[in-house]
Amino acid sequence: MRRSDRMTAILDRVSRLGTIDAGVLAEEFAVSAATIRRDLQVLEEQRLLARTHGGAVAVDVAYELPVRYRGGQNREAKALVARRAATLLPHGPLTLGLTGGTTTLILARLLAERVDLTVVTNALNIAAELALRPRLKLIMTGGVSRTQSYELVGPIADQALAGLNMEIAVVGVDGISARGGLTTHDEIEAHTNAAMIRRADRVMVVADGSKVGRTCLAGICAIGDVAVLVTDASADPGHVEAIRRAGPEVVIA
Amino acid sequence: MRRSDRMTAILDRVSRLGTIDAGVLAEEFAVSAATIRRDLQVLEEQRLLARTHGGAVAVDVAYELPVRYRGGQNREAKALVARRAATLLPHGPLTLGLTGGTTTLILARLLAERVDLTVVTNALNIAAELALRPRLKLIMTGGVSRTQSYELVGPIADQALAGLNMEIAVVGVDGISARGGLTTHDEIEAHTNAAMIRRADRVMVVADGSKVGRTCLAGICAIGDVAVLVTDASADPGHVEAIRRAGPEVVIA
DNA sequence: GACGCTATGCGCGTTTTCGTTCGCCGGGCA
DNA sequence: TGCCCGGCGAACGAAAACGCGCATAGCGTC
User: Fold this and answer.
1) What pLDDT sits at residue A62?
2) Chain B residue with Cα closest to A146
3) pLDDT tens for residues B25-44?
4) Which of A84, A192, B79, B196 has its CA 20 to 30 A from that of A253?
C-alpha cells in the first residue's frame, strides 16, 4: 500500500472513530511503527489531525482535504450515487441547478450528452466540464472562487441566483441528518447553496453513505426542504430511516 | 496500444477508483514503468490527475480547456504581447479585469504566481486556470456560457460587473482601429466587454498585429477610452500611428 | 530509400520511502 | 533509589520510485 493511500485511510478512520491507536494502524497496514509516526507527523503538520501519546485524535471540525489525500475516498460510492441520480431526472426539457462537489461533478459528466438541458451551476469544475458541450445551455453564477472546492460564492453568486428559477436543484453536501438538515464545512458556501435551493421547485441531495447522519459546521437548510436523497448502501440504516420519516424520499443506489 | 488509448484508459481508471498504482498500470498495459511515468506526467501537466509516489490520484477539475478559435495562429506574437503586457502592470496590490481571448489567457498564466492580485474575469478558461492558485483572489462574473470563446455573457454578467471596480481592465479584441474603436465578432460579447471597460480606471488592449486596423461587426467602445494598446511589430505602422494620434499609448512588444 | 518525428525501453545517478537501531524521556514498581 | 518498559525522535542503510539522457524502433513524408 502506498503512502498516499495509507494517509487517506488514516484520515478516514480518525474522522469516523474520533481516535486511533498507532500500534493498531501499524499492524493493520503491515508497516512499522516508525512509518505510522511519520504519517501522523505529516498529517498533523497539515492540521488534519492531532497527535496524542500512542496515536492521534480528530480535530474538532472536519477539515477539507488537500487534493492528494482526497483522491480515492468513497469514489465508487459517489459514482454509483451519481448514476442513480441521473436516472431519476425526468426526460425532456429541463432546467437543472448543480452545486459543487465530486458527486455532482460526476453527475454533470453523465448529463453532458443530453439535449434540451439548461444547467445552472456555481462550480467552476462543472462549468469547465460542460462548457465544451454545444448541445446544452450553461449558466454560471458569478462570485468569488473558493480554492478548495472550486465553487463560486458570495453576494455576486446570490444575486445571480435570485434572478433564476430551476426545476430541480441537485445539491452535494458534507452532511445530512434528520436533526441537522443539510450542512457543509464552509458557511459562505452554505449560504450560496441555500440561495440555489430557494430558487428550485424540487431539491435532490446526492451524498455517499459516509455523509448520512453527519452534521457539519454550517447549515444549509432543513431536512423538510429536500424532496429526494440519493445515497448508497453504506449509509447507516437508522439515520436513513430518521430522514425518511422527516419527509424526503430516500433512494439507495 | 497507442499512447492516447493508454492515457484514456488511465483517466478512466483513476476517475473510477480515485487512485492508481504505476506498477500495476505498467504490467497491465505491458509497457515499462518509465512510459507510465511519462504518461502520468503529461496527464498531470494537463491537471487531469495528481501524481503521488508510486501512482496517481484523481483531481476534480479539468482545467486545460481546448482552444476553440484560431489556436495556433500568431501564437508567438500573442505570447510576446502577453509578456510585454505583464511587464506594464504595476507591482503591488492590484485589481485586474480580464476578458476572454487567447492573449489574455496567456497573460493570466503569467500572473498566476503573483500575490496581492485580484482578478475579475468572465472567461471560463481563465478562471479554470487561476482557480487553484491560493495566492490570488479570483472573481467571476456569472452569465451564459458561449461555447466558442468560453466567455460568460448576458445580463447576469453585466449585473455582476456593475457592482465591481477594477484598476485596470485588460481587453482582448478582434479588431482595433482609430475610426472603428474596439470591435469583436459577437455583439453580446461586445456588450459584456463594454460593461467591464466601464468599471475600470484604465483600459489596456492586447492585440497581435493582425488585429490592428481591422474593424469587426460589433463595437465595444471608442478608441479614446483606451489608455494603452500592446501589440507586436507585425502591426501596420500607419494604423498604429493613427491610433496613437487618437489618444492611446501604443507599446510594441 | 532517406529523412525527421514520436514513442518506447534501458541505464545511471538521485530522491523518496521505509525498516531497523540507538538513545532519551516519563511512569510504574520493587 | 534503581530498574524496566512503552513510546518518541534521530540517524543510518536498503529498496523502490523517480528523472534524465541516450539508443532504438515504428511511422509518415518527401
Assistant:
1) 47
2) B131
3) 999 999 999 999 999 999 88
4) A192
Lateral strand order in the sheet of A218-221: A175-177, A181-184, A218-221
What is the per-residue pLDDT across B41-79, written as a single tens digit (0 to 9) for each?
A: 998 888 788 899 999 988 766 555 555 444 456 777 888
Q: Please report how many Cα atoms fall inside a 13 Å half-sphere around the Cα of residue B79, on the Cβ side.
A: 6
Closest CA relative to residue A138, chosen from A100, A169, A98: A98
**Interface residue A24 vs chain B (CB under 8 A):** no
Identify the residue with better confidence: B219 or A102.
B219
CA distances from A198 to A87, A156, B166, B202 (A): 24, 16, 31, 39
Mean pLDDT of chain A: 89
The minimum CA-CA distance between A142 and chain B, rounded to whole Å, is 4
State the pLDDT confidence band at A201, using cuts at 50, 70 and 90. very high
Cell of A122: 456555481
CB–CB contact A72 B19 (8 Å): yes
DSSP 8-state secondary structure symbol assigned to residue B246: T
Residue B125: which residues within 8 A CB-CB, separation 6 or more? Answer: A128, B65, B100, B105, B150
CA angle A56, A59, A65 (to 5 degrees): 100
3-state secondary structure of B186: coil
Q: What is the pLDDT of residues A121-147, one digit of tens each?
A: 999 989 988 887 888 999 999 999 987
Question: Using H for helix, E for strand and C for coil, what is the string for chain A?
Answer: CCHHHHHHHHHHHHHHHCEEEHHHHHHHHCCCHHHHHHHHHHHHHCCCCEEECCEEECCCCCCCCCHHHHCCCCHHHHHHHHHHHHHHCCCCCEEEEECCCHHHHHHHHHHCCCCCEEEEECEHHHHHHHCCCCCCEEEECCEEECCCCCEEECHHHHHHHHCCCEEEEEEECCEEECCCEEEECCHHHHHHHHHHHHCEEEEEEECCHHHECCCCCEEEECHHHCCEEEECCCCCHHHHHHHHHCCCEEEEC
